[in-house]
Amino acid sequence: MNNHIEEITLESLLPRVFAREEFPFSKIWRKTVCFKRGLRYLVESASGGGKSSLAAFIMGSRNDYEGTLKFDGRDAGSFSIGEWQELRRAHIAYLPQELALFPELSAIDNIRLKAEISGNVDMARVDKWLERLGMSDRRDFPAGKLSIGQQQRVALVRSLCQPFDFILLDEPVSHLDEANNRLAARIVEEEAERQGAGIITFSVGNPLLIENPEKLNL
What we know:
The chain is of the alpha/beta class. The protein has helices at about 50-60, 80-90, 105-120, 125-130, 150-160, 180-195, and strands at about 5-15, 30-35, 40-45, 65-70, 75, 90-95, 165-170, 200-205, 215.
């Protein structure tokens, strides 16, 4: 795999469960779409429109789709398990809607696991992110005892702790107010700029407030 992934291309992609449905207004399903490294995208849909499915297809955790998904022109259907592992380790960061925190571990230990495995950021930077997000006094709380909004901030910081060419954020701020949304968006933008990465956010109605994203509806 190359040092960087420059493009993710969807060609006539569609979840198989939607095979008999029509999507005349979708800018993604059954279309050719290219996500480019360094750019910002907002994928919007109604609930059940397939946004989490699309994120899972890109991450390789699901392959129940029609059409073709390509990374720099190469069909993802040909990837080995090792290549998918490399993609997730060094090229694609992901914040799933369900957050996937370890509830018994503290907020900081959930983040530290990712930070130490990747070696991409030091804990001093993590502490600054938590401070900016108003989470310094919750760093040692078990994740399972945090509010959903607090858990989202912890999971967001964790997702930034690895190298990436693209970061996928599925409903990352659905439980944050506008002020915290803007703080989260700025941190994501700063880290994406540092790595020259693309940002792809997925939202039903409360998107991450990144600047001037290209909007694509499902």
